[in-house]
Amino acid sequence: xxxxxxxxxxxxxxxxxxxxxxxxxxxxxxxxxxxxxxxxxxxxxxxxxxxxxxxxxxxxxxxxxxxxxxxxxxxxxxxxxxxxxxxxxxxxxxxxxxxxxxxxxxxxxxxxxxxxxxxxxxxxxxxxxxxxxxxxxxxxxxxxxxxxxxxxxxxxxxxxxxxxxxxxxxxxxxxxxxxxxxxxxxxxx
Length: 189
What we know:
Radius of gyration: 22 Å
Distance between the termini: 62 Å
Mean pLDDT: 84
Helix content: 10-25%
Structural class: alpha/beta
């Protein structure tokens, strides 16, 4: 995947130990509040983003990271989640991750996304701006979707569909049964 995520920006303060300023240049920049900048520069100084734009001047002495051909995002990306598919795990009516049966290649996570989930703004407040929402269960769980965590409709949340087909490979071991812990032990005579 040709994406240089926010992890790069998270590394910037570590790199900034050597140089107080880091510039990420030449990448496609997805901004929070403006349009996408196809070839731009992000300057991080003192651990904070100080400049973003197509023609930002790079300060002298800055560590420069070439992001040509990559995409720079303004937040963390949750790489595998049920965010938007589950509201309250213990309430079955708010869990939309699993289809009936073991083989569901047709299950599409973006169809089931709840854009009004209370968990989306909580994730955003904690720095997550995009998430790979994936179905669960069965041998072939279905197709995931890359979502931005700002929007009021499933279409507005969707960045890319489908992203991947999710499968669960069986281990061959029997499934652990929690009730076995409470059984009386077998006495051997």
